[in-house]
What does this fold into?
Amino acid sequence: MAHVVDVITETPRATTLVFDVPGRPGHRAGQHVDVRLTAADAYQAQRSYSIASAPDVGTRVELTIVRIDDGEVSPYLTGDRHPGDRIELRGPIGGYFVWGPAQGGPLLLVAAAPVSLR
It folds into this structure.
């Protein structure tokens, strides 16, 4: 279980939640965590969010979340969250696409954006 320690309004639609996660194993760049919300009637919703904080920040994890107006989870997370709130986090997850200097090189990074054919 993670505790919210800070809420930072980045833009009218984006919020960074800073969590303290006791016993956190650390993470590598490119990994994500799953956020699971459980309602009073036991209904659960889970979403994955990329970790926005640097890997070497101790027990802190930052998630920057963009509110999707008709979303099921993001309006809750970007809404009325306060320091002390508890949120269930699982992770870090993902290691298949994480490169580290010990793996050597050369390294070629390629990125692309979708192109409309119209």
